[in-house]
Amino acid sequence: MGTTLTASYKSNYPKISKNGNPITVFVYRITGTEQELSDYRAAQGDNFVTDDDGTPLYFTVNPAPTDVCKMYKVQGGQNAGQYRLDLAEFRKDMAIVAAAGGNLGQAIATNKAGKYLDISASLQSKLQQAVSTAGAQDMEE
User: Is 27 exposed, middle or buried (0-12, 13-18, 19+ CB in 10 A)?
Assistant: First the structure.
C-alpha cells in the first residue's frame, strides 16, 4: 500500500444522502509526509477541505473501528487514486469471529475487542474470564 497517511477521528454530523436517507458523516484529520499530503490534496481535487489550522480533512460514511487509522490509496478500478481508511485488519477480525460462530466466536470477539475499545487491561482480563466461564457453563448444559 505504501503510504503512511494517518487519519485521526475529529467529529461526525448527520446529513441527508442524495437519495433522501439520513446518514452520518465521519470527519478525520489527515497527517503524513509533505509528499503524501501533496498527493492527497491532488487526489481530492475540488473536494479538498482543511481544518481551521490547515490540516487536511477526510469525510466518510464508513468509520474506522479506532480513532486513529492508517489510510491507503486505491490502486485500480473506478476509484483509482482515491484514499480510503484501511479497515483490512478489522474486516479480517470480523470474518474470524463469524467463521467461528457460537461461544467460540463470542470468546474470540471479546478477545479482539480490546484493540478497538479503550478499556483497561484489568477490565479486559475480567471480561475474558467472564466469557470463558460462561462458555464453559454452556458446554456443561
Answer: middle
